[in-house]
Amino acid sequence: MVKRFFSITSILTVALLVSILSAHVVLAAEYPGKPITLIVPSGPGSATDILMRAVTSVAPDYLGQPIIVRLVPGGGGAIGSDQAAKAPADGYTLLAGSSAWSTGLPVIEGRSKGIDDFLPVCRINYSPTILIARPDAPFKTFKEMMEWIKANPGKLTAANPGPWTPPDVVWKYLMKVTGTSFKSVPFQGGGEALVALLGGHVDAATAIPSMAMPYKTTGKFTFLLFLDEKRHPDFPDMPTSIEEGLDRGMITMGSAWRGILVPKGTPAPIVESLAVAFKKMTEDKSVQSILQQYGEKIYFLGPDEFRKVWQTEYEGYRELGKLYKK
Predict the structure, then answer these.
(1) How confident is the model over 244-302, as pLDDT tens digits?
(2) In the prediction, which pLDDT does 97 show?
(3) Which of 11, 13, 166, 242 makes a 20 to 30 Å CA pair with 277?
(4) Please, what's the b/e burial string for 82-103 (b: 16 or more CB within 10 A of its CB; e: otherwise)?
(5) Number of domains comprising the chain
(6) 46 φ/ψ angles, rounded to the nearest 5 degrees
(7) Is it true that the peptide bond before 32 is cis, omega within 30 degrees of 0?
(8) Rounded distance, CA 95 to CA 82, Å?
(9) Is the CB of residue 170 less than 8 Å from the CB of residue 99?
């Protein structure tokens, strides 16, 4: 009787597993059956907005459905992230994640949604940071800026796209390691931060290559520093942070990744389908052409590799938080 019971139980268990697997296969085969929404939790004209619109412009060719970009700025990315995390885990609401609102805010400030709330689909790219200033600022180089800051403590105003975004971390870290003081002013996204600099409301700001390229020859910005080991080919006259004697930690903290996340609980076949589709989208020649105009490059990682990188970043930010709060 006992053996018969276990036999029946085993059969039912196998049947259930087969049923679940079959449902997932059918789900993956039918997905997507309608347009997909991609929440971008930053303002118009931000680097994330530019990147995601370029990549998703070819979504119908590889997914059979369009991906509609919906901007939800506010809270340094926390508002849009919260909305995405609460959406049904069915693959029809995606989040444009970043190291800003998907790592910095949840790790250091305990707000926004992060690695415990989302599943990684793919990393699309990462971008190092450029320090820029108003053309009429009382300094023309990074060294001159640092000398001016030391001579005028607390007077410099530096825009950032939100609290504990990589640019904000860069400014905070710069103050920490140099013993200087100034104001890191938060805005709702990189686009607003640049507008503030263009309007003369702040003295300096940060940008990434895609945001800086349109202003390269306009004279509207003074390009001070590139946070990387090698000079950027599109800005060959701008010195690197290594050349200026800053440690490599500045490069790590100033490199903002962007990728696709889905609410936790999204079926694995859907995550895989999205990852495959986004890889094809990033390899599309028309997308590559658009991104090249903005100085952006693709550094694609699939779900497993991306999660490892994201987890490592989480640990690094925890250590940074301890350093800054000392």
Answers:
(1) 988 776 776 677 889 999 999 999 999 999 999 999 999 999 999 988 887 777 889 99
(2) 97
(3) 166
(4) bbbbebebbbbbbbbbbbbbbb
(5) 3
(6) -70, 165
(7) yes
(8) 10
(9) no
Alpha-helical (H) ranges within the chain are: 2-30, 47-56, 59-63, 78-85, 142-151, 166-178, 190-198, 209-212, 249-253, 268-283, 285-293, 303-324
Mark whether 39 and 74 lie in a shared domain.
Answer: yes
Which domain, by its residues, includes 5? 1-30
Dist. CA 75–CA 308, nearest whole Å: 27
The answer to whether residues 68 and 160 belong to one domain is no
| Residues linked to residue 34 through DSSP beta bridges, in sequence order | none
Strand partners of residue 126: 257
Nearest to 32 by CA among 213, 276, 256: 276
Average pLDDT, the chain: 87
Cα radius of gyration (the chain): 22
Residue type at 3 in one-letter notation: K
